[in-house]
Amino acid sequence: MIKILIVDDEQIERDGLQVILERNFSNLKIKQAKNGKLAVDIAASFQPDLVFMDIQMPGMSGFEAVEKIIADNPHIKFIMVTAYATFDYAHLAMKLGVKDYLVKPSKVSDIVKTVGKVLGQIEAEQRLLEKSKFQQDTLKKAMSVFETDVVTQLLFDHVHEVHLDELVELLNMEASEEKFVMSILLPLGSDDHYSIIKEKIRKIGSGWVGALYGRQLPIIVFRNQDQTFRTQATLLAKEILTLVKTTDNENWFIGIGNVYKSLNKIRQSYQESLIATKDTKLPVKYRFYSDLPATVPGFDEHTSRQYEQQFFEQIRSGEWEQIYKNITDLIDHYEQEGANLLQVQQRLAELLWIASRVMSEMGVESDTHYYSSKATDYRQLRAETKHLLERIQEAFYDYNDKLEADTIQKIKQYIIQHAHEDISLDAIGKEVGFSPIYISKIFKEQLGVNYIHFLTECRIEEAKKLMKDPEKSLKEITFEVGYHDPNYFSKVFKKMCNLSPSEYRKKLLG
């Protein structure tokens, strides 16, 4: 429905024009104003699409009223109505952007023709606005999907093939140089909480939110240089925890990793944040990794932290032979040093906890494994530690055994068929029955590229085929192959083909 405001100091003129409009056009909502001042007030609340403005009125003139209305509502269109069509009036009207003139008295046919032309412009603009809004909404949803995949790639995979700057640019979010990771443990079945947290982080503009895997939600947080790291992290943790219902408080916990400058090192902050969640029974429901005692005592702190990171990566990669050797060497070292047996058992239990957490993130159903009793000597400690590691290893291999010979081909085929959609690791995971992190891992291991690079290749190849049709515009092709921003499509295409889309098409059709 198009809204029209008729402004004239003579009621007979207003009523006559309204009758003509209602008889010749449908879907109109019409209001009247008897002077310029009243027109300004009504326009502010009514927000008309078109205003018929008489020029000569007592008090505020029509041109003065137009100036005031346009200042707050530049989209409104005006048709000036006057008994005096002078050059000065026409010149001033043009400066104000008035669409047309009606001279009193006007023929009904002239009024209908003039109004029909302006209404056509208004309807075309409305359609364009609706299309733009739809594209913006679609882009927002696509960015949300892509954001979780970028976080997955950064935290669980080495991103070499897709340049990190491109990933950051695609997310269209100002990222600070320094970053850290917060890992949130939520109650199972917390999809509603996930959406609320994601919206909260997006409003604050403080980071990228990953996908929810079981109970775990990772967030890459951008450092705010106006606050200390601990102040920023503490305030953000408290803000997230305000979203928790009192009854669920026991099941929530937030681990906070250290700050790193390079995105290549953000995985280390993630691992630290995860380790910081190992004791969720604390009265304060968040903890900094830097506040934890070293998991591997008896070494300097740097060596101890390196051991944790190494153990984390070895479990994730399934390097079991090396894992057994390192654990055995560690127990031997403690025994030679004469370390307290129960303390050593506690530290080994924490390493096993890390192993279970890594398995869980990959989608492997593996409960945290505990020692059945307090060890009485190092021989018993070795035997039971080996037994617990074997149980974790067994769960790892059982999960891998589910991987069918053609699973990677199924994943490739799914990506090829759905490349034009807002595809995600979650969607692929549901299709083949594996966790998104595990898919990312095996895809790169077996094909040598991560899935985002493969998806990009599929889209660019399809774009090349569509460019053979000279009737299709590059903008149409952009949307058809799955991109929502022609400028970004152009950048990606040029990076992959060393030619811009227009240069490639010119060469192709030349």
TrEMBL record:
Cleavable signal peptide: none
Phosphoprotein keyword on record: yes
InterPro entries according to UniProt: CdaR_GGDEF, CheY-like_superfamily, Homeodomain-like_sf, HTH_AraC, HTH_AraC-typ_CS, Sig_transdc_resp-reg_receiver, Tscrpt_reg_AraC-type_HTH
Pfam family, one: HTH_18
Residue positions where 4-aspartylphosphate is found in the record: D54
Domain HTH araC/xylS-type: residue ranges: 409-507
Keyword terms, alphabetized: DNA-binding, Phosphoprotein, Transcription, Transcription regulation
The name this protein goes by in its record: Two-component system response regulator YesN
Domain annotation Response regulatory: ranges: 3-119
Biological process according to GO: phosphorelay signal transduction system
One Gene Ontology term of the molecular function aspect: sequence-specific DNA binding
Coiled coil: none
